[in-house]
Amino acid sequence: MCSRRPDEPGGRDRSPNVYLKSLEMIGFKSFADRTKLQFEPGLIAIVGPNGCGKSNVSDAIRWVLGEQRPTALRGTKMLDVLFNGTDARPAMNMAEVSITFADCDKLLDTEFNEITVSRRIFRSGEGAYFINKNPCRLRDIQRLFMGTGIGTTSYSVMAQGQIDAILSSRPEDRRGVFEEAAGITKFKADRKEAMRKLDQTEANLLRLADVIREVKRQIGSLQRQAGKARRYQELKEELRGLDLFVIRRRLTVLDARLRELVAELAELAGRDAAGQEAVATAEEAAAAIRAEIVENERHISEMGEAAAQDAAKLAHAREMITVSEQRIAEYQTWSARDTREAAETREQLTSLRERLTAMAAERQTLEEQLREARGQRDELQQRVTAERQAIDQQRRELQGERDKSLERERRATQLQNRLTGMEARQRAAHVQRERLAAEQAHLAETSASRLQQRDALAASLEELRAQAQQDAAALATIEEERRGTDEELRGIRERHGQLSSQRAAKRAQIDLLTEQEARAESFPGGSRLLLDAKNPLKLDPGVVLGTLAAQFKVSARFRPALEAVLRAWIDAIVLRSAGDATEVLRRLIARGGPASARLIAAEAPAVENQPAPPAPEGLTPLADHLEVAEAFAPAAGALLKRVFLAETLEQVPSPLPRGITVVTLAGTVFHANGFCEHWMPEGQSASPLARRMAIEDATGQIEAIDAELADLKKRLDGLVGQQETQARSQTQARQRLDESRRQAAQKEGEWQSVCRDVKRDEERQRVVGKELELAVAQARSAEEEQAGLAGELEELVNGRAAFSERLHALQNALQERETGYQAQNQTFAEARIRESALAQQLSHHIGQTEIYEARVTELQRQLEGRSQGVQSYDESIRRLTEQISTTQAQLEPMRQRADESRQKLEALRRQRDAKAGALAEAENKLAARRQALEKLRASHGALEVEQAETRLRRQNHLDRLLADYQLNPAQLVAESDPKWGTDGEPTIEKAEARLAVLNRDIQEMGPVNLVAIDEYKTLEERFALLKAQEEDLLKAKEQVLDLLRMINKKTSEMFRETFEQANTNFEHMFTKLFNGGTAKLVLIENPDDPLECGVEIIARPPGKRLQSISLLSGGERTMTAVSLLFAIYMIKPSPFCLLDELDASLDDSNIGRFVQALKDFLAQSQFLIITHNRHTIASSDIVYGVTMPEKGVSRILSMRLPDIGVRELEVVAEPQPEAPPTLPPKRRRRKKTEEKTEEKTAKKKKTTSADKTDGPDETDEADLPEPDDSADLEESENTGDAEDTVPATKERDSDDT
Predict the structure, then answer these.
(1) Cis peptide before 893, with omega less than 30 degrees from 0?
(2) Is residue 1012 pLDDT above 60, yes or no?
(3) Number of C-beta neighbours around residue 1162 at 10 A
(4) What pLDDT digit, counting tens, does each position of 1036-1069 carry?
(5) How far apart are CA 14 and CA 40, in angstroms?
(6) How many CB atoms lie within 10 A of CB 1058?
């Protein structure tokens, strides 16, 4: 980067209000390292070779200002802005760009002098925006810069190709640049927000109307439920009093019975204790006898076990002797059997050994015969194999000759087929050549006729298209008229719908208030009886004149005052006379029950017929502002003759004259005795008077709405008829247009069909010519090929006989050899059969020998086993004989011990029987005493059960008392009895019968909504609130519509003013930059609506006719776009402007005018220009160089340019087409001596140290201006410190002139 000192030629001392101060990047595209560019007001050039990353600076500014289109950043997706790495560096996962504006507190209307906007994106896709390091939304950034000319779509950033896009874009899209200049983008955003709010308001109104209808329906349903709930409450109240009376009486009876049961249970408890002592004594005696019996049983059991053991031992000894004798007999039998079988086995062994000796001799003979048979077989096999190989060789020779014969025959057949096919093809080719010649002649005739038909159809098509355009214009006119009618009709219908909704709301309000008035809910019970249409008091007709509220008519302004004065009598009933009032009171008292009522006689009493006191100064009688029913006028005068009206509190005199009352319009009442009160009802229907007045107001409003609806109906009918007429005209016009278009399309289809036919005929003629030439050439080559094939076929036919004779001789020789081979093979087969038979006999003989040997071995093993068994049997017989003798000697002592044990057991059993009789007698006595005790306890248990049941019934009454009425016994006693009639207090039975009747009545009522009363009141309040909300929404809608009209009017005015000024400026700048010519801006498509019209650019360079901008050259288009850009800058300059290679297509003369125009705007804006042009660089105050010393990574160069060798071009007043423009001579420097080289090197090192450069010196002069002498370039390694990128001042050497 380099900068020009203020004292240099071309240096400027400027300080715009707002300017771009710095741009900081890290990880953005090719700027992998943290890089910061410091800017100053003025013209700043960014230079460098192609592909070094200059345009990435422009992309960074667009991206940080909120660009959302990857294509605008030269990418396919937003993640393409991340540094993707190089061969030496890894990719980065985060990119961040920060841009700082200085002196922006006034323009941006902020408290900060500097604003830093940052944008960050991660490779995972997350992103964030910051304003002064505080997180924010993209919308906040767009709102901050809206109307300032700064933004991604404004004219502050002109990237490559974007300046030309202004000229190439559609007229309606081009309008956005002028809107930004006019400063109406904020208004358009507000308009969009207002439209969104308007849609929301419309939706809310629709929903609110639905809710109001539903609430009104619910109010009607809840009205019936509330009446049912009140009847239910009355029955429940009577049921409660009567039920409490019955419970109290029942509890008294139950408490008395419980006291009696306690005394009886205490007496039975004493008798139970004596019976328990007697039973215990008897149980002790029985337990002693039972213990003796148990001990005796134990001795019997022990003696019985001893006797049983002795008897068992004796029986066991006898059984052992018997078993041993049986075993001895069995052993003797088994020993005799084994001796006999051993003799038989020895005889079999002798026979088998003799057989084995004979079989060994037979086996030796068979083996000799088998060896002789195998020798004969091998000799025959060798002879057969040799003969077989010779036969195979002869067969292969014969097969080879046969294959050759078949190949010759196949080739002959193939040649014959080819000759036949060629003859057929020659005939077909001859026919085809004749057909092609005829087709060629026919196509020539057809093509001529179709060309004539095409010209005729083209003329007809032009006529039909002209007619279709006329029909389309007529249809457009009719449609425009119908759109106007539809718009007017839509407005009337919307107004009709609004009025209908308002009328329905007012009607619902009247119905609701009328229902409330008819039910007289705010009146006491006696007043409701008087107002009841059924006349329950049997009064004469005309006695009741109505409610007090019905006697007055008053405007809304005086209504609070009248309500405040009559508040105490607001629910009074007006009667005809005082005598009628006395009769009514007598009947109300005779009726009994709650029947409160306030009565007023319409006839004023004589004592009241006195003149009214004079009105205090500034006050008027309240009665002067009222309309009173004629029959009630005397009473009204008596009520209000001492009441005076004050506008405000300040008009109320102090003190008040004696005997008068003053009320304000707000409802504050002052009495002469010093009392005062303020009346502020909760709602519009809080009192009968307010309800009556609200009904009258709503009725008047409905009448006005009906009148307006009738007028709208007439207009609507007229517009509907007009719309139908227009619809018919539109249908007819559309039909005519469709018919014209159909005929034109049909004719165009015919014309296109004929054109296709002509083209097809021409193509066919060309193809037929080529096919004809090809057919002739093919015929000549086919004749030559046919002659060659015929000669080859003749040669094959002549050699067929000799080849057949050779095949016959080979076949006869093969048959003779095969006959000899078959005889030898038969002899070989007989030898193999004899060998196989001998081998089978030998194998069978060997198997028989092995079987006999196994049998001998088995018989020897059986003989040894039987010999050992005989010895074992003899030993067992001896052992059992000795055991029998020992056991017989022990039998007698065992028998004696068994007899003694049996005698002792009999004695113990006799003792047990005696004690069992004594135990039976004791248990009988115990059973008698227990029976008496059980009877006593049964009586005690019955009393306890009765006591528990009584307590349970008492507790049930208490539980029901607590569950149903939330009362405890103390509170029950405090409850008073119901008021009985003339019959006095009823009995319990009558009271319970009445309870049953009440319960039945309540059950017959079915489900009761007890909250219906509160819900009904709540719904009335909600209905009033919803109506108020509807009014608020209608007002809000009207306010939004007013805002939209204001925005449309204001933006239209601003756009027109800006457009007119821009048009004037554009003409001036175009003439200045082109040194002549004319240009202007035109509103098209919808010029009457500036917000919807398009902007067309018309330009005529000097010496050329007026033409479309699409026909201008590249340089002319650029200068035209620059003229438009500067024209907008003259109206509202952007704080900065970035131009990306805008001057690439300009020549030197245009560059001079372009640079001069930039200088003219430097007092208002800061310009950053990415350029390759030397003249633009020479005119810059600050120069940044971008290089790429490391592949894929951009760096910023810090350069010291003593003199770039190019002077700024001067703008000439008039062009000179006769001679080409020449550049002024370059500024020359003094000749330097060779000795200064070392001094320059030292200065270079000093400059590097002063600029705080860390890396090595590198120079990239590929696209930098070349000075007369070599310039010193220094690379500034950007390490992230802000000081590394502070612009260096462009200095001159001490030896510069």
Answers:
(1) no
(2) yes
(3) 16
(4) 878 888 887 887 777 777 777 787 878 888 788 8
(5) 9
(6) 21
> Using CA atoms, how far apart are residues 792 and 812, in angstroms rounded to an integer?
32
Helix axes 171-182, 185-519, angle to 10 degrees: 90
Flag whether pLDDT at 1221 surpasses 80: no
CA angle (530, 536, 538) in 5-degree steps = 90
Q: Which residues contact 673 (CB under 8 A, 6 or more apart)?
A: none
How many Cβ atoms from other residues are within 10 Å of residue 1133's Cβ?
A: 21
> To which residue do tokens 């004259």 refer?
657
User: Could you read off the pLDDT of 309-319 as tens digits, one per residue?
Assistant: 777 777 777 77
User: Is pLDDT of 1200 > 60?
Assistant: no
Structure tokens given for 762? 């021409």
Check the CA dihedral 337-338-343-344 and report its sign.
Answer: positive
Task: State the average pLDDT over residues 1213-1219.
Answer: 38
The single-letter code of the amino acid at 1022 is R
Residue 204: how many other CB atoms lie within 10 Å = 15
Alpha carbons within 13 angstroms on the beta-carbon side of residue 1108 total: 3
Q: Are 567 and 679 in contact (CB under 8 A)?
A: yes
Query: And the tokens for 599?
Result: 């009565």
Over the Cα atoms of the chain, what is R_g?
A: 67
User: How many beta carbons lie within 10 A of that of residue 826, not counting itself?
Assistant: 10
- The whole-number average pLDDT for the span 1119-1133 is 77
DSSP string, 1087-1130: TT-TTT-EEEEEEE-TTS--B-GGGS-HHHHHHHHHHHHHHHHH
Using the 8-state DSSP alphabet, how is residue 31 labeled? Answer: B
In the chain, what is the straight-line distance between the N-terminal and C-terminal CA atoms, in Å? Answer: 24
The pLDDT mean for the chain works out to 75
Sheet with 573-575, strands from edge to edge, namely 544-547, 573-575, 599-601
Burial class (CB in 10 A: 0-12, 13-18, 19+), 434: exposed
Strand partners, 25: 35, 97
CB-based contacts of 375, cutoff 8 Å, min separation 6: none
Q: Residue 1208: which pLDDT band, with cuts at 50, 70 and 90?
A: very low
Distance CA 140, CA 65 (A): 11
- The structure tokens listed for 433 are 């050549």
How many helices (H) and strands (E) would you count in the chain? 19, 27
pLDDT in tens, 192-213: 777 888 788 888 888 888 888 8
C-beta separation of 817 from 387 below 8 A: yes
881 has a pLDDT exceeding 60: yes
CA separation, residue 58 to residues 28, 61, 64, 358, 941 (Å): 12, 5, 10, 122, 108
SS3 at position 627: strand
Beta bridge partners of 661: 643, 671
Angular region, 1211: left φ>0, alpha ψ -120 to 50, beta rest: beta
Residue among 1188, 1186, 1152, 1183 at smallest CA distance from 1169: 1183
